[in-house]
Each structure stands twice: as structure tokens, then as C-alpha cells.
Design a protein that fits this description.
Oligomer: single chain
Helix content: 10-25%
Bound molecules: zinc ion
Order of helices and strands: EEEEEHEEHHEHEEEE
CATH architecture: 3-Layer(aba) Sandwich
Number of strands: 12
Distance between the termini: 31 Å
Number of helices: 4
CATH topology: Cytidine Deaminase, domain 2
Largest sheet: 10 strands, mixed
Structural class: alpha/beta
CATH class: Alpha Beta
């Protein structure tokens, strides 16, 4: 990591400059499955199958309220091409529930930062997750406010899961505003 580059603090979560990493599609033993309008040349979002499964499991564990979590991984760059890679999911405090803006309080972010550091302090905050049990995959006005305030970079994503309808979607900031984005699911061969 080039230590002359500044670190930006968002609440209690540090966001680092892009880190030099190999392009995920070229890695040996990795297969990628395209979901939605995922473009390879447009700062793509790569999602480890295990991390997505963890987010899905956490979403389905309690469908009586909204639950949330943090998306961890890397903001990578390979020969000038940027990408986001989601490698781990961190559930937000189990005691909390209710709308996303209640789940993600200052204290919740502080707790998540601690948990991230315990897991692996080198992981970047790739985005956030919350559920909409039974009412569909979209971003409410409060969700949009929270995303813009705490996850303002174009490589950061919001994952919304409806565990009742069994639907999910990622949202990111782009030329058309904050809207749904395609992604690639990464699997290790044989896994
Ligand atoms: Zn929401």
C-alpha cells in the first residue's frame, strides 16, 4: 500500500485507495457467472459466491424485521481497470432491527468497524446490505440518503434482499444515478 496516499474516513469506516490486484476473471480456477447487465469494462462488481450466500442466509434467518450487514472486500485496480470485489459479509448487531437507517447508527458502524478489524483489517468496505422482508428490492428515500452519506464512491454497492420474495439486487452510483447494477458471481472451481 502506498502510504503517501490519504485515507478517507466515513463515519468510523476507513476507505482506502484502490489496491493493485489481479483482475478476477483471469485468476486460475475461478469461474464467473454474469448476473444482470454486468459489464466487464465498466468498473465491474465481482461477488464471491460464499459471501453472497452468507448475506442470503443472514437475510433469511429472520423475516419478521429488517436486518443488515456490511459488505467487505477490495477496491482493486489492474492495469488501470478498476473493480470492486466482495469477499466477505459481516452481519450487523443481531439485537438491532427496523428500518435500515435504524440498523446503521453511528454505534452500529463503530461495532462493525471493530468486527472488520477482528476479521481482517485490510478489507475495504465495499458496501452495505439490508433486507426488505416481503416488500421488494428497491432503495427507499432513507436508503438513498444513507448510501450517499456513508458509501459515496461509485465502486461501493448497496445490496437489498427480499427474503420473502427470494429476490436480491445490487445498487450503485453511475451515470444514470443510484440504480441497480449487474455483477459477476465468482466461484472457485470444484467448490
Ligand atoms: Zn430499505
Amino acid at each position: 500500500m502506498a502510504d503517501e496516499l490519504p485515507e478517507i474516513r466515513l463515519g468510523n469506516l476507513q476507505v482506502r485507495p484502490p489496491e493493485s490486484r489481479p483482475w478476477p476473471l483471469g485468476r486460475p480456477g475461478i469461474s464467473a457467472e454474469r448476473r444482470g447487465d454486468a459489464r466487464e469494462d465498466d468498473r465491474p462488481l465481482f461477488v464471491a459466491a460464499g459471501a453472497l450466500q452468507a448475506a442470503s442466509d443472514w437475510s433469511c434467518a429472520d423475516t419478521s424485521r429488517e436486518v443488515g450487514g456490511l459488505l467487505l472486500g477490495f477496491h482493486g485496480v489492474d492495469e488501470g481497470r478498476e473493480f470492486a470485489e466482495l469477499t466477505a459479509f459481516l452481519p450487523a448487531g443481531a439485537a438491532q432491527g427496523g428500518p435500515a437507517h435504524v440498523v446503521f447508527t453511528h454505534d452500529a458502524f463503530a461495532a462493525l468497524e471493530k468486527a472488520r478489524d477482528a476479521l481482517d483489517p485490510s478489507l475495504a468496505v465495499v458496501g452495505w446490505h439490508h433486507t426488505h422482508p416481503g416488500y421488494g428490492v428497491f432503495l427507499s428515500d432513507a436508503d438513498r440518503f444513507l448510501h450517499t452519506r456513508f458509501f459515496p464512491f461509485p465502486w461501493q454497492a448497496a445490496l437489498v434482499v427480499d427474503p420473502v420474495r427470494r429476490e436480491l439486487g445490487f445498487f450503485r452510483e453511475g451515470p444514470g444515478g443510484l440504480r441497480t447494477t449487474g455483477f459477476f458471481i465468482l466461484r472457485v472451481a470444484g467448490a
